[in-house]
Amino acid sequence: MKRITLVxxxxxxxxxxxxxxxxxIYIPTLNGMKQIDEAVTKAKDDxxxxxxxxxxxxxxxxxxxxNFCKDVPQIDSIIKSSYVLIHLNYSKExxxxxxxxxxxxxxxxxxxxxxxxxxxxxxLHTQDSGLLEKEKGYDTLKVATFLNNWTPQIFNKERYIxxxxx
Length: 166
Fold this sequence. Notes:
6 helices
C-alpha cells in the first residue's frame, strides 16, 4: 500500500511539474537589431537608457537574474524608472551576430551579460553579471549600484556643476 501511495505521489508530482512550463524570456525568432532599434526609440521618447540582457532560455543564470530583477522591489523600480529592458537571444537557433557586433561582442563575458545603451543607441557599459553574484544568486547592493551608475540622470551635468553663488 505504501508503495502504491508513493508511486501515485511521484506521478502526480511529475504531472504537476510538467504542466508548469517555464516562461521563456528569450524569443529566438526575434531580430536582435530590430529589438535594439525599437528599444532605443522608446528610450529616447521616455528619457531612459536601454538595458540589454543577453542570454538564452538554455541559461539558468539568465532566469535567476531576470527573476531577481522582478522579485526585488528596489531593483524592479530602478529598471522601470530608468531603463527600457530587452532580452536579446543568444542560442543555437539564433546567435544574433549582427546585434552582438553592434554591442561590442559582450558574449565574451559569459551569460547573462548586461549592456547599457544611451537613447542614441551608443554603448555606455558592458557588465559581466558574474561580478554581481552573491553565493547562489545576485547581490542587491551590487546590482542596484550597477544600475544606478548608468541611469540617464547620472549623466546630467547639473549634478556636477558647483554653484559658486551659494
